[in-house]
Amino acid sequence: MQREDSQRMWNKILAIFIILILLSSSVSASIIDTIWGLITKPLKGVLKSWEHVLKNPKHFIKHWGKHFAHEELEEKGERIRTFAYVFLLGLFTWTVTKDISENINRYILINPDPLHEGVKSTVYSFIHLLIPFYVLALVSLGAYILFLSTSPKGRSRAKSMVSKLIIGMILVTISPHLLNFFFTLSENVTKNILTQGEEEVTDAVGTYTGVMWKSWFLTVGAIYGVNALGEIVTETVTHATGFSISQIKKHHYSWGTRGMKGYWPVKVLGTLDKILSKLKVEAEPGRTIPMLMLSITLFIGVYGILAFRYLMVMFFTLLFPFTIFFLCFDPTKKLGGTLLEQLLLWTFVQEFYAIILVAIGTGMIMLPEDLLGYGFGIWPLTISFFDLAACFTLMLGPIILFMLLRKLLPPL
Amino acid sequence: MRMNSRIKILIVIGLILVAMSISTAVRIPKIFGESHETGFNRMGIIIWIAKRLLYIWLSASYGTEGLNELKANLSEIVMMNPSITTLSNLMVIVIKLVFALYIPAIAFLGFYILFLSSSPEGRAEAKSMLTKLIVGLIFVSVSPQLMNLLLTVSEGLTSSILAPTAKGVFTKAWDTSIGATPLDLRLELSGLKGLHFIATFIEIELGFYTFLFFMILVWGAFIFPILIRFFAVSVFIVLFPLSILLYSFEFTKALGRTMLEQTIIWTFLQVINALIVLTVVQSIISLGEDFMKVGWGITIPVIPLVGCLMFAVAPLFIIRFFRGFLP
CA of B195: which chain A residue's CA is closest? Predict the structure, then answer.
């Protein structure tokens, strides 16, 4: 409210000043002419030059080509290298953002298919591998009942273990179907979360792709930024004044003298050009490694975690017969419990991911608009802290939830 | 043989470069003249490209040097275990030390029964502790055989898991991740090698700091955990009699449990490694090669790449989470 009031007050002051300037009889026509000239002349010049370029694109390309051919070898190499770097990084960013926008739901929802021919045959080969272990467990239990267990309590415990082992045997044989049921259940829950918060998911993905693109923009800015500014000023000065840049460079510093007959735009822009040409930096891709690292981290943070989750679920899917065996045999119950817990947790990472996506999307929608742009960099090359934090939440959130819910099952 | 041929090629390329440099040095004035007149320095360009090609060839060879050995001996490397016979001398020393430690342990228990334990329950507990110690003594004396049995079971399981594995698919995952360049005499530019190739032409440091590191990591992440396991198992084999003593003595049971658990986990880590190979193979087969393949022109195969790097991360999860399974 206070903010709006102050904004309104500033608008009023500004309006009053403009009216005063326009209406004041003391304002001489020459000053207005100068200001008007300052705005229109360069604009006209630039427009004229662009008109010329648009009318003769061939001439322009030829001119640029000639200019390029006459550059020093190092400069040529630098131009090609930096352009290739920016182009390839842009291509990479484009493919990643496009792929994520189109396939994020598919990547989150995918689970190994336990009924796939290859997976099923491997699981059955493991079941064959389990046979000697089952024989050993049953024989050891029999020996325990016959020779070691003296109390009726111990004997009944051993007998219950036998029944557990037999139930385990049945479960092991249908383990691919059991897993298929569980994965379908988990997929449906995740699908529901993603469908309910479709808008939020789109927003969260938009935030991620936005940061990827901004990282690329920062790279481009870091490489071409200052030099491009210098080029723009030089071009503007040349086209606006009709003087060649060498002429301007020769005369522009003569403030207060008769250089360029006191033509203001030339002096202002010429000085700016001189400053910017001194600021000219070598466009080195190596200097943008932090931005490259940000892009790579964002890429690994999402793709790496999703792929790793899939592989871990596949790993515990293949181990599932062993999990059932360990769970059903008392001495290895704890190990079986840990294996089952890991399988459940890695499968639930897809739910965690969906929840985090929706949470990020909701958070971004709820944020006050004037805070959204709060970040680092100079406009338009800025990355909002909120966007960056959202991306890191997307990368670390599932892992944090995974660690928090580690004691999912009751102690066995 | 391969090394020799590589050295020969290296020498030939080196000689060509030296010859080029000499010819450049001789022609310097002329070239400089040409450069100023036409803005085009042929020798400069050739040297610039040759330098990068040599660097790419050398670094890519360096970055994949151990991979061929790994591909050829995948099963042997996964099934590698320390030899009990070689370590038996050290084990005998530890067994003797453990036997010596049994004397104060039994004496301590005797004193405990005689003077400290006043209740019949306490005495019964002390007696059961004595039984455990004696059982432990038997296990210590057969500890080399026990350890051998553990290793044999682990090896047997590993070979059973690796046998049906299409090892070719797994080695293909390495090949897909590493990729190829025209320097490998193949008309393609793919994988990490392809990215390294392009990055080097943009800037040598860019290729060196990013993709060369990943190139080594792809197979280094496989071999290093296996080697670390090998040494860890060697240490635990030597300490195995001590672990049994500590586990069988009630007052040091917690420490003994941790040591025995670690011995079992590190020994059976090779089964986990074999399972990871199988996991990656099954994932690639069931998902297809184009799943999660990002990029245009040069693509990054995410599943094979993460699968190769899984060897470095998954064992850490196993060691971290699979604890406390012994009673």
Answer: A88
